[in-house]
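I am writing to request your help with a piece of structural work I have in hand. The matter concerns a single protein, recorded as an amino acid sequence and a row of backbone structure tokens. Could you please explain, in whatever detail you think fit, how the structure tokens follow from the sequence? Thank you for your consideration; the sequence and its tokens are set out here:
>
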Amino acid sequence: MRNLWTKAGVFGSVSMAFGSMLWSQKNPDSDQASSPSGETNPSSSYELKLVQVLFRHGARTPLKSIPDVMEGGSFSGQLTTVGMQQLYELGKRLRTRYVEESSFLSSTFNPAEVYVRSTNIVRTIESAKCLVAGLFQQKEKEIVPIFTTASESEILYPNYHGCKLLKILASHRWAESSTLPDIATDLQSIQSALGIAAHQHIDFILIRDDMVARETHGLPCPSVLDTWRTKVEQRAVDMICHVYEPSKRENLQLCVGPLMHKMLANIEGKLQGTSSEPKRKLFLYSAHDTTLIPCLMALGIFDMKWPPYAADITVELHQHRQTNKPFVKVSYIDQDQLIPGCSGVYCPLDEFKKVLSSYSLSSDLYQSLCNSKEGSTKP
């Protein structure tokens, strides 16, 4: 029997989307071309030099359905047409800021200016395509290079396969997270309310994932979840905080240390003129909620809310027009953030580097730590 997901018409390929809702926008040929002068609001005291955007993929099917309750049958983790639209809209927002308002970027895709990197998973690759299409108002047949890497060397998510120590620490804390007293009590109650057999493995992150995926696409959820919504959200966040344990530096180092190091290296390369691509202005990183959460924790701005689909962390490098001193500005879902340890929203680069120095790890240090038997943190 065809499942609810198929009936809801939420599936479609990126190429199909090109010919339908995503590409029914204004013809890009009618846009007035803008030349990328590098000027970004001349009245500002700061000149934009580099942008890095780390974003979550768009809406998808659940990774796993709630057993005995929800109807499955779809491919798990599949990007939907709703998700494609979300990333296209994010691309349009970036276009407004960096093309139309500031002429920072060229109005069409230029591989010398823009680098696109994704985890090697279909939903993130397709999300990246949709964002770029919105950003540059692309037509269907235009090809954009999207770089990926093998899973064992991936730095765009906490890599349990490529880092032995992280696997040891995380597997213990994942198992422990559902047994914490408050979480265990609430989990037993919701399991009973939903009529889920006691032997079924379930946790609040799984429940939340299925619930949010269905609601995003207008699909039905058990009515009992209406009264549990706030608690499900709270307990899912409590679980992931226990797993990542941000109070212990080593955990976040292992989760996002190489990514933090890469983003700082991109900044230094731009400032020092040592980048192999001197014209590069934009780095796009297509990733996951499990990427954004530890990054937000490392930055000290995690708001104890699960990042929604298509959420983005944007890191801008600016130079003061009079002093030439470098500053970094971070936004999360289009809201500027005051990073703890920074003296202002425009954070002096030295202060920003000091904030991240606790978590940034070079590739060599990361591998050394991953291959250590215990590290400084024991499970």
Notes: Residues 23-39 have pLDDT under 50 and may be disordered. The beta strands are 46-56, 114-118, 282-287, 312-320, 326-332, 335-337, 347-348. DSSP finds twelve helices and seven strands in the chain.
